[in-house]
Amino acid sequence: MAVKSKSGKAPLRGKLTAMALGIATALVAIVIVAALFGENFDDNGITGAVAGTSAAVLMGHALGKLRRHALKAYFGLVFLNTITAALVVKWLSLSPEGAFQFLLYLLPLYLIVGIVDHVILKTLEKREAQRSLL
Fold it and tell me: Torsion angle, CA of 98/103/109/113, rounded to 10 degrees?
């Protein structure tokens, strides 16, 4: 998303824009999932943490490697990750009582979500490469 300058680094404005897009995407995903699951879907914050982490991590991968459908893929993956996290939190009734327990729940959940994201992004990259050859 951010255009690199002559020095090879993204300008501050581009970084700030990317951060703002990531934060806004995570917040919108949380609001939409809250509307679907009710107001108490993320009492412990794990769902919000997954949404925020997804938005931040996927920014460079989705927007950097995909051309045509980058934003759709980015938003779709953040929403998919947020919904998946909300379902897992709800089904398993996760309620961490401390920072260590929170991380213990968050890391495996995001590892699974990250693997799914990786597979989806690789598939989309292959499709983009095939379309560009045509």
Answer: 140
The token pair at 129 is 């490469």
In the chain, what percentage of residues exceed pLDDT 90? Answer: 1
Beta carbons of 106 and 89 less than 8 angstroms apart: no
User: Could you tell me the residue range of the domain that residue 28 belongs to?
Assistant: 13-132
Arithmetic mean of pLDDT, 39-55 = 77
The answer to whether 120 and 77 are in contact (CB under 8 A) is yes
The reply to whether 25 falls in a domain is: yes
**H/E element holding 115?**
helix 99-133
For the stretch 19-42, pLDDT in tens is 788 888 888 888 888 787 776 665
What is the rounded end-to-end Cα distance, in angstroms, of the chain? 25
Whether residue 117 is contained in a domain is answered as: yes
